[in-house]
Write a structure and sequence with these properties.
It is found in: Cytoplasm. The chain is 36% helix and 21% strand. It is an alpha/beta fold.
């Protein structure tokens, strides 16, 4: 589909992980679907999918949440891209990012995985690094906590108060990336908040 975009929120399946830092990508997808009064349905590619439009008459959006664990979600992304006929350049991966402070969003097109195993698996399965990323900052843990444990913990009380705004901003970033292009989205979302 020439006008379609595949937007994938990375995360882990099941209630245990639902509101953890690692699942912030899927929480952003929930926000995008809710804005359009869409619900996710089971897809044979082992994902939950909502098909919608950016706006009436605008590009088609395939919103997807893999049912697999994050580090092995690449196969699902590749199968969905093939099923819908979407090139890697029109794939957007929304994921958590340790190296960005909480409450911060960064966008990039193409490039390396930056040590993120979910992004690494997507690149390997797609055979391309040409997909865009909306990186949602979760920050690093204070003290000696292992980052692997930190990402699997639920958001703390202070973070939970800011989370709705962060998810809304990240959803805005996805919409702007698809609708206006990467540069416009970066100029808005990389600027300091006022």
């Amino acid at each position: 589909m020439a006008d379609a975009w595949l937007v994938v929120g990375l995360g882990n399946p099941g209630p245990r992980f639902e509101l953890t830092r690692h699942n912030v990508g899927q929480l952003v997808l929930d926000e995008l679907a809710e804005r359009r009064s869409e619900t996710f349905r089971a897809h044979k590619a082992n994902a939950r999918v909502a098909e919608t439009r950016l706006r009436p008459g605008g590009p088609k959006l395939v919103l997807a949440k893999p049912n697999t664990f994050m580090n092995v979600s690449g196969g699902v992304v590749a199968n969905l891209a093939k099923f819908y006929g979407i090139d890697p350049q029109r794939v957007v991966i929304v994921h958590d990012e340790l190296d960005i402070p909480f409450d911060t969003i960064k966008l990039k097109a193409a490039g390396g995985h930056g040590g993120h195993n979910g992004v690494r698996d997507v690149a390997k399965a797609l055979g391309s690094t040409a997909f865009a990323r909306v990186r949602v900052g979760i920050g690093r843990p204070n003290g000696r906590q292992d980052p692997a444990d930190w990402v699997l913990d639920p958001f703390g009380p202070t973070e939970r108060r800011s989370l709705p705004l962060l998810l809304s901003d990240a959803a805005d970033a996805v919409e702007q990336l698809v609708g206006e292009g990467l540069l416009a989205a970066q100029q808005k979302h990389h600027a300091p908040r006022v």
